[in-house]
Amino acid sequence: MVRRARWFELGLLVGGVLLAALIAWSTPGSGDYLPGGPVGGDSNGAPAIAGLAHGHFGAYLNNQPFMGLVSLLLRVPAVRIAQAFPSHRLLEYRLGVLLCLTALPVLAVWLSRQASQREWKAMCALVGVLLIGAPVTVDAIHAGHPEEVLTAVLGVAGVIAAQRGRELWSGALLGLAIGTKPWAVLVAVPVFLALPAGRWKAASAAGAVGGLALIGAMLDPSAFLARSRDLGSMHLVNPYSLWWQLGSNMPHSLVPSRLLPLGLTRSSALILALGAVTLAASAWGVSRGSLRPPHPLALLAALWLARVLADPHPNYYYYVPFVIALAVWEVYSLRRVPLLAVLGVALLRVTYELPFHQPGWPNTFLLVWTLLFGTYLVGRAFGQRGGRPAFVHLTTRYFNWLIREVDLRIEDA
Known about the structure:
This protein has 413 residues and is mainly α. The chain is 63% helix and 1% strand. It has one domain. The protein is built from 21 helices and three strands.
């Protein structure tokens, strides 16, 4: 039985890597990843990776994007290997994509080892395939941002470690997530709420690991902050943000866009909206007497969803962390087929296929279904036994084996 489980895990890992390689090699371009090009805010990590690959730390400091060292160091071997094939322009980026996407099959293998039931192992394989091949993940690859996937995996793993009472591991994974993309600081909320004890240990581990990963920002903060200044000072709103309804019309604009109210910038509007959502979710939990949420992954998915909507100018691939957290919550905590994740992926696809020249349609549709998702997720995060969506009841009526919920206890770890 043990040998069979090992073969399954090996097959799951190899299959996931092969699928990731297929997606990486089918990518026609590198998006924002431009070797030799300008850094351009947080978009282009290629110059920083090249500096690290050649041992020029000063070049990294001068060209550091608005992110930490984790994904940059992970992609250093890709640059070194690509140097042997100078005629292959996309090889550097594709190898880097493969390295970042490998985090998903590794996560699927880790989840499959948490129980012995064959049905659950099959669901872990399913969630790995779903997440690697999801349209939103593919869009992140086409946009040049595979580090979004790595950040989400590290954040989800940190919450699971906290849920299982592993203080140092949860703190280290939180630090690695923040050291990949700064927006992963949101992971701290479910991590510290989920920990039964040892929060100071987790905070110390997160600070140590995150500090090492963000050492470039500490050594040269002006260069680090300058990368986000242009993006953060924008006053525009696109139709995929909750700020669209509050913005004022922008005359003579070539694309549908509005201006933020009250002179807000993109950074201030994001912080304001996200802070309000976080406080509202926390107040809901306190009012229900649930200071330690039984489903912290659901809270993480809700916060990552709010992070996208609170951004005045979000992109499609920003939803990658939300989809990953949602799918892992369903498989790991509820032990059911990730139906909500599949539905979320489908709704996102429909949203971004709606006519962009009539921005009221995608904005209204997006706000309706994301409000329903967010309310449901926060309710489940702080409620011991929340209700299920109607389609889940229909599924359990006819396919009883598809959805089975269990209570996750720390003693099972």
